Amino acid sequence: MKKLQLLIVLLLLxxxxxxxxxxxxxxxxxxxxxxxxxxxxxxxxxxFQKFDGNFELDEKNNLVALKGEMDVNSINxxxxxxxxxxxxxxxFNAEQFPKVxxxxxxxxGDKAYGKLTIKNTTKDVVLDYDFGGTITDPWGKQxxxxxxxxEIDRRDYDITWNQALEAGGVVVSEIVKLNVEIQGILKSxxxx
Length: 192
Prior knowledge:
- By secondary structure, this protein is mainly β.
- It has one domain (2-191): Lipocalin, CATH 2.40.128.
- Helix content is 14%, strand content 51%.
- It contains 2 helices and 11 strands.
- The protein has helices at residues 2-19, 80-87; strands at 22-25, 31-38, 42-48, 51-57, 63-71, 75-76, 99-108, 111-118, 121-136, 142-153, 172-186.
- The chain has an 8-stranded antiparallel barrel.
- Strand 2 and strand 3 form a beta hairpin.
- The longest helix is centred in the first third of the chain and has 18 residues, at 2-19.
- The chain is elongated and about 55 Å long.
């Protein structure tokens, strides 16, 4: 009986440690951005303005889990006509595929390995990872920050629309740069 009680206590302590490091993404201090070369001479930047997710840090502040979901209909490049084209069936097809997701598999050194899903196509990606640290904000909440960046080939996700330029090259590069700045707030035990 004592072994069973000890096992229950250990499980409860383990759960409290596990959940003590789960952070909800703070949308007002997070940016899910991307950039792509346009007409081979300049860069267009954009972002997803609606997203949700959480991440988990262990007791040594190692990132052990991260899941994010972006709303394709919230894409913003500051040009309404371009945003409408990006949401159309030619590009993201937001009506049929309204979400983009990322799920972390592991972190090794300064690299984050995970699965990125766009248009129901899931590919392994490797992103640069930087942990910004943790703080207690002026209102007593524990916060943590991290950054993810890297490149993907949009053709891997069946995003193939393009036009050839008369002088050579294409309107939109196949390579898309990702730049995600995340800030999270530690969930309290009553949020689990």
